[in-house]
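JOB MANIFEST
job_type = single_chain_structure
chain_count = 1
residues = 256
[input]
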Amino acid sequence: VAICAAQEAPEQLKRCLDSTRLALEAAGSAGEILLCGPEAVAGPSHWVEAPVGWDAPQAHNLLLREAFRRGAEVVVLATSRGMFHPQSIRALLRVLTAHDQRALVEATHFPQERPRLFDSVTLEVGWASSACLAIPRALFEVLDGFDQALAGDAADVDFSWRARAQGFAVLVAPDAMFLLPGDHTLRDAAAWRSRVANAVLLARKWRAREFEIQALSELARVRAAVPTAMPAPIPEDWRGAADFAHQLSFSPVRWS
């Protein structure tokens, strides 16, 4: 389990680590806990130092590379803001095993679920959040991690779409419960501007010019700076893995 440690209070980080150990024990796994953040915290099996100015995609990549270097076959990424239900890692691995390790599998957040719609039979979902996410070695070897030019949901969306384009399923494990507080930044003006700016970069990368124009219009409306970066575009035949038809949800939703 690879935990991205934000600026949580020590008590919350301890709760997260304790829940991780319980979930690993319940899964019958001898797995390690890796932790990445700005300063060392006692307890995890291995500490991965984060550079100054780190963000989530960068921390995820540091953790993934170290975990797979150490011999892991599956890495469960998690944020230190949350806590594992004791049966959650077992549930993630069960779904992953059922798909012969050819999948990206997201945990179910509670008490506030994400509104993305998923297929109750196939468990397919439009994209998977890195808040709690099982990643097999085979997928990492193909994708080589998250795109560090993106941030927030855009990085997760891009990672999921690239996985799908490479033939991996993108799934949710309904009974893999991960306790996660609601995101109170969604109504924050600065967070909204960042979200839209990252959507512009995502659209450029995935050759979605019409969506880019819409996102640029929103940036103009809120008087936000337009990103100048031009990410390397994905191969043309990958475009079918993307979904720009549902605005910034990038997926059908159960509620808005």
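[summary]
The chain has two domains: 2-180, 189-249.
Residues 189 and 222 are 9 Å apart (CA to CA).
exit_status = 0
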